[in-house]
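debug: dumping io for the single-chain case to check the tokenizer round-trip. Nothing else runs in this session.
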Amino acid sequence: MSGDGSGMGASAGGEPLYLLTAAEMRAVDARATAEFGIPVDDLMERAGRGIVEAMEERYGDLFGFRVLVLCGRGHNGGDGLVAARLLLGRGVAVRTVVVGARDGLDGVVLENAKRLETSGGRLAFASDARGLRPHLEEEPVDFAVDALLGTGSRPVLTPPYEAAVRGLLSLQETGTRVVAVDFPTGLDADTGIPGEPCVDADCTVTFAYPKRGHALFPGRVRCGEIVVTDIGIPAGAASAEGVSVEWMTPPRAAALVPLREPTAHKGAVGKGAVIGGSRGLTGAVALCADAALSSGLGMVYAATPASLHDVFEAKLTEPITWPMADGEPGSHGASSAAELLERVRGLQAAAIGPGLGRAAGAAEMARRFLAECALPVAVDADALTALAAAGEWWKRHAGPRVLTPHLGEMSRLTGESAEAIEARRIDAARAWSARWGVVLVLKGAPTVTAAPDGRAAVNATGNPGMASAGMGDVLTGVILGLLGQGLDAYDAARLGVYLHGLAADRVADRLGVEILKASEVERELRPALAQLLEEGDPE
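debug: decoded output
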């Protein structure tokens, strides 16, 4: 799937593009049959058709090509059997192999096996590696369809499926393109963790909704291009099951962008403050403040240590500087908290942390400011470290908060290891967001934004070049800019993450992904915002 979410189809009925667990998808399938009266056979027929149409859309007319379809005994295999029959009708040279014995098929899967044979399809059965080998080595094929396990896939495979996956990998080495049905075999559908072996698909066709393992790394890479195809599951089926995790797509992000009235002036489109800066870390404030302006905020104030005022006057052009009393030389002091709380009255939002440093006075100032400021505040960098050192800080924040930790900062805040958090990235973000009563932006690949009510958005933009200094300061500025324009904390955070990643993708398209400078990404925010609005325009 491309970085901006292209290639991902909309889910049923214009719903958010929810990300489901395997269990949630089974429940949605069952609801479609029990509540909406859609026969399983109809869902399977539509799924098979979706596989073929996705292949034709990406690879052109398949007439005369050679295709091997490997099927399991379950419904994923049934989808593959339908696809094999439809490919046969398009003049494709298809051979189909079921991993298992014929008497292991039943229900709609057995019916579709009979339909394939009635249509003249070549269908074989193999229960072990020895039986599979001749079919895998018989003759070269242009495409192989992995319809073995789908969302039932797990990293540890039984011997016949392991042999089938190794056969697919060998075919791929000879130039065969592999299309996975719902999920590459050997990849965990909930975590995106691959086993050994695991199919490395060129394209994955999934149905109704993407699954969590499609979005989480390294699964996202193993899936290749991800295509979501509509199989007729009605709108509301996922939300009725309580699903509240979504994949951010261009239309969803564009719908959140605050638009200016024709009579707008700088005071009417938001004012915000960036609180931070210390000796050696002056660039962080500059990046954050400039990003807030580039995101549409009308006015930005930069509250920085008085001893560094001349430096900031030189660095900052559009932002207005607020020199604050030093504590230790070149850093904020605890005594400036009262003045800051007074100064931000009349503003719409604030950000604290970029370049703040770890002096004791600066940390004390940050904790008091966050405990008493009623404005929405984006919290990053050393302000997070200050919170981590305070017991039960989440019981003392006076207004909406957006926390933006990377894994190391998240570990300090929670006491959990970075590895444990990463292993359950989505659910960890949701759980801690609910416990703390804040919007939580868990940065990484992919970044997850969680709200206290259980909603979460998994980001679809961004690239490895963003692993460079200052990138988090730009993100904090974008979120500040959106908070200041009136978006609520969750919407500002998830849109900010998407826009930040989109700007980085635009830079990478021009310069490559080896490394991106944060200042390059900041300068690309305005073109990225224009692109997003264009993508979201129904005209």
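debug: round-trip ok. Confidence is low (pLDDT under 50) at residues 1-7, 9-13.
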